[in-house]
Structures are given as C-alpha cells and as structure tokens.
Amino acid sequence: MRKTILQLTTALALVTIAGAAQAADCKITVGLVMELTGPAGEYGQAGAKSVEMAFRDINDAGGVRGCDLVTDTRDSQSQGNIAVDAATQLVQ
User: Fold this and answer.
1) What's the pLDDT score for residue 22?
2) How far apart are CA 32 and CA 22, in angstroms?
3) Which among 16, 68, 69, 84 could bridge 55 via Cys, Cβ 3.0 to 4.6 Å?
4) Residue-level pLDDT at 14
5) In whole angstroms, what is the distance from residue 16 CA to residue 60 CA?
6) CA-to-CA separations, 21 to 53, 56, 60, 91, in angstroms, rounded
7) Residues 6+ apart with CB under 8 A from 57
8) Alpha carbon 71 to its chain's center
9) Per-residue pLDDT tens for 20-35?
10) What domains are there in the chain, each with its CATH number?
11) Distance between CA atoms of 36 and 5, rounded to whole angstroms?
12) DSSP 3-state assignment of 87?
C-alpha cells in the first residue's frame, strides 16, 4: 500500500511539473510500473485501476492545465529486475 501511494504521489508530482510546460488540448503520458502479475499482482491491479480512475476524474474536471492524463502501464511481474527494465524503457 505504501508503495502504491508513493507511486501515485510521484506520478502526480511529475504530472504537475510536466503540465506547466504543456499547451492546451494536449496529452500527458505518465509511465507506471506496477505488479500486475505474480505474487503481488492482485495489489498492483488494484493500484493500476485506482490510477486510471483518478486520471479519469482529473480529465473530466479539465485535466492538468487543459491537458488530459494518460497512462503507459508496464507489468513488473512482481520481480525487481523486470521492474528496473520496465522503468528504464519508460524513461528512454
């Protein structure tokens, strides 16, 4: 649960920073690495759904400075090395 909250907080902070530089009618893609499968898959799926619901609410309210939020979610398979690879792909 703490990890999910940290991920959401980090994502929202990045979105806020990115939103300041974006023009109207744009999309801000937020990359997420979540445990969608594996031993922690149940928790990661719930976290991913929570992010999607929050982004939907934000977008329905006008987005971030007029930009819609979208997610690019990657599965870590509950394995650290796969999570690192997925995060590296997201930032390249």
Assistant:
1) 47
2) 20
3) 69
4) 62
5) 17
6) 24, 21, 21, 18
7) none
8) 5
9) 554 557 999 999 999 9
10) 2-91 (3.40.50.2300)
11) 16
12) helix
